[in-house]
Amino acid sequence: MAKQQKTQKYIPGLTPRPVTPPEEDGAELEYDQGYNVPKDLRKDYRSGAKNPVMCLNEMSQRLKLTIEFQETAAVTSSMGGFAYLCFVDGEPYGPGQGRTKKDAKIKVARIFMDSALGITKKPIGAAPPAPKGMAPLRQPSASAAAASFSVQAAAAAGPQAAAAPDLDVEDVPCRTEADRFARMAHDKALDLIAQYDPALFVHKWDIAAFVMKMGPNHEGVLASLATGLGCIASENLTVDGLCLIDSTAVVRACRGLRNFLYKEIRSYYSNASSILEVGQGNMLKLKDGITFHLYTSCPLSGDYEESVNKGPSDALTAEQREEVALGGHFPYFLDEMNHGALYVRDEDGICERVLERTSPAPEVQNMEDVKTFVEKMEGDGRLVMSTSDKVLRLNVLGLQGALLSQVMEPVYMSSIIVGSNFDHGHLSRAACCRLYNNIYNELPQPFTLVHPALHPVTFNVGHYFPQEGHETTEGLNWSLAKPDTVELTNSINGKLTQKSPDNKSRTRSSTLSKSYSLFQFKQVCRGFRQDLMTSQNYRQAKDNATVYQAAKKALYEHIKAAGIGHWVRMAPEVDLFV
């Protein structure tokens, strides 16, 4: 008999997260793939106790299957230079792609295991991969082929540019505020791509945006927007703060929002119009009615995406939906599924649960060990936390980050909107509800845990804003900080591309970089808050935010005590620049 799934009625700040253990192991398969996977092996794979290759090998021995890994052509360099197919009793699975052969085999083994367990369905009629050394044929999706066209790429883009999809955006139904925010983000992204980098139209990319409302009846305006995937390759990581380490869309959009906040701080101190005013203790704060709302076109990597891919949470009742409309959360937990666990991503995009072997980077007080930095990055230090975990941290520490917390009160998002694969039970858990209520007593004021409203998009984003092709390492970012400026970056090196309009400096550094953040902070300090001019480098500037650091320490200790993992930090050398 399948396990009876449990959902707890949750009102943020009033009731604890569910703790009822599952009654028995096992769950119904969504798809029948013809493999009777042993019960203990299913559990080991789902829990992460054994990696996909180990599970595949053990399964082949126990079920007498013939397996063969075959190297094939990499579909796109953005996901790494190695690719493997896996043949199980002659049936092909994959390809899996990575920057090393080991990573590629892990990915293709995961494809098979997910199919064998019924987590995903094996594609039917997929085109066979091209032999190694030959370019694969790409077939356009039906939705892309059927899309009408109304927006054209700029003629200046040149003959090599891809054609922009002519999308009749007037047909997009906007029934809710979340729909309107999603359309604003996609419209802006399409406009910027058509104007600055039409080649992106032949790729898939995530979109994230922060929408600012200036009152309950205000329709909202985009404050920042970014597209992007992936993180920097370890060999390109530097210690000068000039490269972007995490180029995922949500992280980039958040950094763009911080640039906008810096602009508003300068405006306030210059007696110009600003969204800020003085709060307690001479700290700035948002004016009443100013709210920020996060839109992401795709599921947040980590706890949310991994859980959604393995199955939906329980459907909400009519009563529960009414409470959700008022801000209630109903998080979904199954202990055997490791719901709520922290995840790390490596440069190949592989997302894994944080295990005991993944330890925080050692503390370093000076630059003497920088020569060994690259070697350290080959270990756990090159890992970055998943987007689900970073959103969880934003809901505790705020959108403003450490530096700005010395100037202004925490800024929290009021809602999260997910464009595809929305699941309230999984999202509420991943974004906030995996922390226990005693976190409120552990955090120093004015920090707290917020539970933003959670919304789906009611129209089919993939239908009205179709994408085809493969994922790309290139992305763009824009914000109200400099509304006439757009940056194009590459996630592999974390720098501006040659096509970026502002690619004039020798360093090709983005305004989303840590170095630029420190530059803006020093600008504010020199002009308006000279009492904060005490730091020697970026790390000291962040450490001077003592209340923020105390809140971060409390959060990390709470995470560890809750048994959901620990926060993996990049090696400290990356923050020692001046």
Automatic annotation (TrEMBL):
Q: Which PROSITE patterns match?
A: A_DEAMIN_EDITASE, DS_RBD
What are the residue boundaries of the DRBM domain, all occurrences included? 51-118
Which segments carry the region annotation Disordered? 1-29
The UniProt entry's GO biological process terms, in alphabetical order, are: adenosine to inosine editing; RNA processing
Limits of the A to I editase domain:
224-577
The source's domain of life comes to: Eukaryota
Record GO cellular component, one term: nucleolus
Mind telling me which Pfam families this protein's record contains? A_deamin, dsrm
What this protein is called in its record is DRBM domain-containing protein
Q: What is the species listed in this Swiss-Prot or TrEMBL entry?
A: Littorina saxatilis
